[in-house]
Structures are given as C-alpha cells and as structure tokens.
Design goal:
mainly alpha, 7 strands, 340 residues, 3-stranded antiparallel β-sheet, two-stranded parallel ribbon
C-alpha cells in the first residue's frame, strides 16, 4: 500500500543542502496536492511521493545526489509532475510488470556463444527444450530455484540432478532482472529508459546489457514460475544483507507477507561452481530492482501501472472506454516513440 513520505526531512540542511531542499519540495507538493492542478497522467499526490521515495530509496549515494539536482532544478509544480511522469514511464518500460503469461524456458532467447564445459548437461537440457542461457543458469544455480530451493522438474527428468529425501520439485524459468523489451529493436526510447534508471543505480555503461548481453548470466535468475511472476511484477525483491564482496547473501522481501513462505525470507546465499565462467547475478542489478520495487509500491505508482496494464489486457488499447491513460502507456511500452 502507498505510504506518506517520512517526516521530518531526514537530510541535514548543512551537510546535504541539495538533498534537503529537494526532499522539502516533495514534502511541500505532498502537503498541497489537493490545491495543485494535475498536469500529467499521474495524480499529484503520487508524483510527490514518487519523487520523494526516489530520493530515499536510491541504491547509491551518487544516484541520489544526481536525482536531487533534477528535483532542485524543477521550477514549479508542473515541472515536478513532468519529472515524475518521465521516470515512472521508464520504470514501466524497464521491468516486465504484469504483461501476460510469463514466457516459458523453451522460448527463451539465446546468446550466440557456448562455454565448452558441461556440454553433456547442456546438450541434454536442449533436448528438453532449454536454450543456452537458461541451461547455463540452471547449472550455475544447482538445477533449482534460487529462492525456494526446489529442484527443476525437467532437470530431474533429464537425470541431471537427483532429489534428496524431502526435496521437492517445481517448474523453473529464466527470469531477467531487466526486461528483454528494453533492448529489442534498439529503439531510442529503450536506450533512454536504460540510461535514466542506470543513472539512479550508478551503472556506468548501457553496453553491459546491449544486444545478446541482455541474456548474460549476471542478468538471469532461475526462479520457480510463481516466484518469477512476483519478481517481474516488482512484488518481491532481494536485499543484500552483508558488505562482503565475496559473499552474495540476501533476504527476500515482499509487498505482502502472504506472498512468500516464511522459510524463504531470512537467508539466501547465491553460489556458483565457477565465478568466472558462471558469474552470479550482479548485485548492482538486484539493488536497482529492489529500489524500483520499493519506490513503485510506496509511492502508489505500482498500483497505477498495474491498473493501466490490466485495462490494456482486458479491454484493449483501442476500446472506446479505454481512456488516454491506457492508450498512452500502451504506446510507451510497445513502440519506439518518445514519451514527450
């Protein structure tokens, strides 16, 4: 559920002047939202909270400072709403959200290169319909969902892994941290979506996820099909629990406790048999995913996007009662035009 911005201002006026001033502008807009004219599709209250939580939840200090300057430069209520609309549009674009049935592993796009190790396992998985990136992620993740620990049923059927007493099976899928469509067609809008949100996470190069690099192992998780859906919709996320760069320990967080098993929450450590050939999911990507998930749900942008996407699925963008919100967001998500 959306929550009001925390008060008082957490940024010290003396040591963090720009952050303090930017957050005050968000608090002021939140206080006055009923008297402010709505200039864009997002409600004024949602705009105020979205900008404020972008400051509070930015995963890096540099990203927070950059965004504070953007808010500070806004000349009034309309430009603040415009900034919130711009960033929320890109949030819609870069993550899958609820856009229909999750693609199956059998239709997973593949990279063009194949490491030489474990060819037998890969060949066996390919006979079950798995393409190269998913087979590599499955091997790295021990042929199981990294969150639930349940074994991948197809890998068990292929005799790649044998269940131990008490272990359960499930259907797993390859989950991208960042959405495939941000890279398809190499559109100007897709590139700007990556650039804007990467600034927030201080990810220095779009080339990291350009072309087939979008399917690099650092951007892929093996997840149970249901958990995959929740992860895509920003309903669950992983928060790092230690600062040791050699260990990848996380806790699983959800917007509602009922979405996940209590046994999954406390300690998840990601491991790999070979960190060079089979690298783990990039902690920067997971941190940006976690930040965007929290921002979306705390501000109310997540509810708004979900409502629009449900309308797109149920009535279609050209329905006479669809309204401008539905048509606008369908264009933002699926075409190569600029939002403004």
């Amino acid at each position: 559920m959306p929550e009001p911005l925390p008060r008082p201002n957490p940024y010290d006026l003396t040591s963090h002047l720009v952050l303090h001033s930017a957050y005050n502008k968000c608090l002021d807009l939140e206080t006055r939202y009923e008297q402010v004219k709505k200039s864009f599709l997002l409600q004024v209250l949602v705009c105020a909270r979205f900008l404020g939580y972008m400051l509070l939840r930015a995963p890096t200090d540099g990203g927070r400072e950059d965004f504070a300057w953007e808010i500070w430069r806004c000349s009034g209520d309309e430009t603040m709403q415009e900034l919130a609309q711009l960033y929320s549009d890109h949030l819609l674009r870069i993550f899958p959200r609820n856009k229909g049935r999750t693609p199956s592993p059998r239709s997973h796009p593949s990279a063009q290169t194949t490491p030489s190790k474990h060819d037998k396992a890969k060949k066996k998985l390919c006979t079950y319909g798995f393409l190269i990136p998913f087979s590599e992620a499955l091997y790295r993740d021990g042929y199981r969902c990294i969150l639930s620990g349940k074994l991948d049923s197809s890998s068990v059927s292929a005799n790649l892994v044998a269940p131990k007493p008490g272990e359960k099976e499930t259907v797993t899928e390859a989950s991208h941290i960042f959405e495939r469509s941000t890279n398809e067609g190499q559109s100007a809008y897709a590139a700007s979506a990556l650039a804007i949100l990467f600034r927030l996470g201080q990810i220095t190069s779009i080339e990291e996820l350009h072309g087939k690099n979008l399917h690099r192992l650092e951007n892929v998780l093996t997840l149970d099909a249901v958990l995959h859906r929740h992860f895509d919709s920003l309903s669950i996320w992983l928060e790092k629990t230690n600062a040791d760069p050699n260990r990848h320990c996380y806790k699983l967080v959800a917007i509602r406790p009922s979405m996940i098993d209590d046994r999954l929450v406390d300690h998840i450590e990601l491991t790999t048999p070979d960190p060079v050939e089979y690298p783990l999911p990039d902690h920067r990507y997971l941190a940006l995913h976690a930040a965007c998930a929290q921002i979306a749900h705390l501000s109310g942008v997540g509810e708004y996007i979900d409502r629009v996407l449900r309308e797109i699925e149920t009535i279609g963008v050209l329905a006479s009662n669809g309204g401008s919100d539905v048509l606008y967001h369908a264009l933002v998500r699926h075409s190569d035009i600029e939002a403004y």
